[in-house]
UniProtKB/TrEMBL annotation:
It comes from Natronocalculus amylovorans. The gene is cbiB. NCBIfam families: cobal_cbiB. Pfam families: CobD_Cbib (PF03186). The keyword Nuclease does not apply. GO terms for biological process: cobalamin biosynthetic process. It is a multi-pass membrane protein. Keywords: Cell membrane, Cobalamin biosynthesis, Membrane, Transmembrane, Transmembrane helix. Converts cobyric acid to cobinamide by the addition of aminopropanol on the F carboxylic group. InterPro entries: Cobalamin_biosynth_CobD/CbiB. This is Probable cobalamin biosynthesis protein CobD. It comes from the Archaea. The chain crosses the membrane at residues 72-96, 186-205, 309-326.
């Protein structure tokens, strides 16, 4: 078996990370999430039984999306095993986002110094809140909160699912699959991509229709709460590691339940503790209320901390892939 096939999991992770670093996002016309959005969009309608429709959509759409992307990797792995890690890496690149989020956050934070209208306008790409009446400090808080929350949604969730799914198959005895498939690496990559695709689809459905005012989106919102429970807390741990100090994570326990979401409070509260600043969504929640809202330098430092946390998480995934997937 070639080195490429043996180390297919870390190779796919490295390719995905390199593509994110170089290009940030693939072209919209080729982006699987754009196509997924077109599938989800018609679900946002009026129905006699919205919960039933929403439940069917929450179950079927992520499974279908995972089957398509996982199937592509599996077929490539069966035909040309050496190419499968490349295809998996390219698809994984489309399922997570780091560079674009961080760049947008830096731009918004910097704009609060002398171009408040631009900062308010660009904040819409980060946070779903009305920025018209927000002060510069509140805009910086929103941008900082967004990068912390999206560490879980945009990176740890999908990359973690890929790594766990692929390594789970890898550690199983290859003889279990010998009669069904030509190579276990092809199956491992396919399962990893399917797992990442499923998590990303669940999160995308929650983002598009999971609002309190839309009963059809309630099942998607509840499923996302369940799926992101672990990634949110892992993200908080890596933010604390990025400082590095256990204090932010310990402090976060006091504030993490303030936001209405059962998950987003953990990475946001941990980052608030790491920066020693207050983060708040006016009228909804406050984290570390005794501190002050972030200055420009503090908010930019928060972006850097999240960037470092993301790199640490990617490194752990790659090392796990080398240690287990390369055996």
């Amino acid at each position: 078996m070639s080195v490429v096939v043996s180390f297919s999991i870390p190779i796919a992770l490295i390719i995905a990370t390199a593509l994110d670093t170089l290009f940030a996002e693939p072209p919209a016309r080729l982006h699987p999430i754009v196509f997924l959005g077109r599938v989800i969009e018609p679900v946002d309608g009026t129905y006699d039984r919205p919960l039933l429709v929403g439940t069917l959509a929450a179950v079927c759409i992520p499974i279908g999306f995972a089957a398509v992307l996982g199937g592509i990797v599996y077929l490539v792995g069966v035909v040309v095993p050496q190419v499968a890690p490349v295809v998996a890496g390219v698809l994984l690149f489309t399922l997570f986002s780091q560079r674009m989020l961080l760049e947008t956050a830096r731009s918004v934070i910097t704009a609060t110094k002398d171009d408040l209208e631009t900062a308010r306008h660009d904040l819409r790409a980060l946070a779903g809140r009305d920025a018209a009446g927000l002060s510069p400090e509140q805009i910086r808080s929103a941008a900082t909160e967004s990068v912390a929350e999206n560490l879980a949604d945009g990176l740890v969730g999908p990359l973690g699912a890929f790594t766990i799914g692929a390594l789970f198959i890898t550690v199983l005895d290859a003889s279990v699959f010998a009669s069904a498939v030509p190579t276990s690496p092809a199956v491992a990559l396919a399962v990893g991509i399917a797992a990442a695709s499923w998590v990303k689809a669940v999160n995308t459905m929650d983002s598009m229709i999971g609002y309190r005012s839309k009963r059809v989106g309630t099942p998607s919102a509840r499923l996302d709460d369940l799926v992101m429970w672990i990634p949110a807390r892992i993200s908080a741990c890596f933010i604390s590691l990025a400082v590095p100090s256990p204090d932010p994570l310990l402090s976060a326990r006091r504030w993490a339940q303030n936001p209405p979401s059962p998950n987003s409070g953990w990475p946001m509260a941990t980052l608030a503790g790491a920066l020693h600043v207050k983060l708040e969504k006016p009228g909804v929640y406050t984290l570390n209320e005794l501190a002050s809202l972030p200055t420009v330098s503090e908010a930019l430092r928060g972006v850097q901390v999240v960037s470092r946390a993301g790199r640490l998480f990617i490194l752990v995934c790659v090392l796990a892939g080398v240690a287990i997937g390369g055996t």
